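Posted in: Structural Biology > Protein-Ligand Complexes

Title: Requesting predicted complex, zinc ion in pocket

I'd be grateful if someone could produce the 3D structure tokens for the following input. Sequence and ligand are given below.
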Amino acid sequence: MTTLLLSHPQCLEHQTPFGHPERADRLRIITHVLEHERFSDLARDEAPLAEVAQLVRVHPPEFVERLQNATPFVGLVHVDGDTTLSPGSFDAALRSAGGAVFAVDEVMKGKASNAFVATRPPGHHAETATAMGFCLFNNVAVAARHAQAVHGAERVAIMDFDVHHGNGTQDIFWSDPSVMYLSTHEMPLYPGTGALNETGAYNQIVNAPLRAGDGSDPFREAFEVAIMPRLRAFKPDLVLISAGFDAHERDPLANLNLTEADFAWATKKLMEAADEMAGGRVVSLLEGGYDLEGLGRSVGAHVMALMRG
Ligand SMILES: [Zn+2]
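-- Reply #1 --
Done. Output follows.
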């Protein structure tokens, strides 16, 4: 059984203003790293475009239309202070969500043991009807709902180790007992949510905030103490990962001090739990990570762990 890697060149066509951290070079470095021969066993495919019917399990149809209609023919349009649409953005966003959906299909059908979706824009800040924080559609939420609607997954767990709290994902699943959202993140930091006492309508939201300056030990302790027991008790049929790598010590947007070894460790922990209760089914989606060297090394370590390397 193989690890599936999904991406698409159209994800390079989502342009952001000069100097913006969420830029096409992020995907270029990831592609470069994963071209190395130690990743030659990856099954590789192109991320398809998401269908509107898949998006509207999470987002109102008017929101999808609004983003499409706001997409400019030239130049950039701001949808919030740090989120923009360029001519290629809508299709890139459809690739990001579509890659998430296709990865779920392949893993739920047993055609791949797990998958990494290397696409942009990211998704975990996007709420049902609000694009924000570099995110247009909430890709991981679309993936979770697809697994439930099409593949009969009863319980889906979403682990988000991006350094920012996934306010969008938390908001979307706040009142849904069939989806557990778990997050480690720096706090205080954008977007301001993710306190310990934000636990969801069914106590199925698990926030484990970390403090600026925290590194490997506090992160691993939070993972072992706050995250893994709750994940195991939930007994998910599928484990989704919002894989942001901006908690890396080199990242310019935050102040946690993780290294690529920590991301590999966390990935293996999640795979162990998935092996026990979810038939090993893990689908990981790229979120943040803004230092190109730190991002490249971290994605390499994460994907190598998914390959059981
Ligand atoms: Zn982030």
